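Journal club prep, notes for RB
We'll compare a predicted complex against what the paper describes. Inputs for the adenosine-5'-diphosphate case:
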Amino acid sequence: MSNITLGILGGGQLGSMLSIAAKKLSVKSIVFSDDQEAPAQNFCDDFIFAKYDDKDKIHEFSNKVDYITFEFENIPYETLHELNKLKIVLPKPSVNRLIQHRLAEKDFVNKLNLRTTRYVYIENKKDLEPLTDFLPGILKTTTMGYDGKGQYPIKNIEQISSLNIDFSKKYILEKLVKLKKEISVIVTRFGNNKYEIYEPIENTHENQILKYSKIPAEINEKLFNQSKDWAIQIAEELKYIGTLCVEFFIDRNDNLYVNEIAPRVHNSGHLTINAYNISQFENHIRAVCALEQIKLKKISNAEMINLIGNQITPYRQNPKLNDNQFLFDYQKKEIKEKRKMGHLTTLK
Ligand code: ADP
Ligand code: MG
């Protein structure tokens, strides 16, 4: 045993895959989640169920662990800040605070002189009216959005009055990009100029939810290098420790845009489990727990399909797989529409 215990905030599939990677490294994992049914409890060594603002449970958790990380960015900043006084939290809570807010995140990327979509801050309905310049666009909540949640596509000015938008929340309005492709780059940063980077992954979304990912991405060499450069620049500027993912848009003129940054392991990187010597999850744990950095080697091209809602059912009933196929069932009890239930990776 390495004698290291890692605390993971959040108990979804990313927490499960982090726990599995921890086990491989002989690191003990303790998952903290506010969901009693959290699937990661099936994969970790110890599980704490409590609200993220439960001070007693937070202290109990921190007493049991050496390092703390998180599997999703919407953990309250106060919780991360409190924990960071007691144990090492990586990536740093300040990184999370910046990135969990879409406006702050986009301002940060622009300050680095990297391109984003055009965007504007929206506090109330009136703010929207003079903004025809940004239409067609997408109105997105500044916080707590994922898998297209909290997003309203707006085609034209006439549509605004008919939209039922909850203005107790704040938004950004983003100009729609005429997409040619979406890609993501996953990088694990270990320290100053020390990182492992995966090749760009090509992603296809359906209803704003990731459906397919594949390597190699069908992009030109310039975009291949530019997307990796930008991801490294972002990780360096944040002095990030751990695995980070940058989602990019490519428009019809082959311009690259940063869409968003995920301060964590990412769905598009599930194929790294089978396609590389070290997965994004293992690299995250190596970086956070100050373990050895090992040079990344690609083993194979690959394609991953997310199994959403009912799509898991035939695989549960009769998982007929070839030798080059790897099924992951997240073991979520309830099948829900739009819920990510599992994924299938095929090596090519
Ligand atoms: P989430 O936090 O839900 O992942 P994103 O901002 O990444 O939100 O949006 C989800 C998906 O919606 C994107 O991957 C893309 O397919 C589409 N989308 C979002 N914003 C834009 C935009 N400005 N132009 C074109 N497509 C967009
Ligand atoms: Mg996204």
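Talking point for the session: The chain is about 25% helix and 30% strand.
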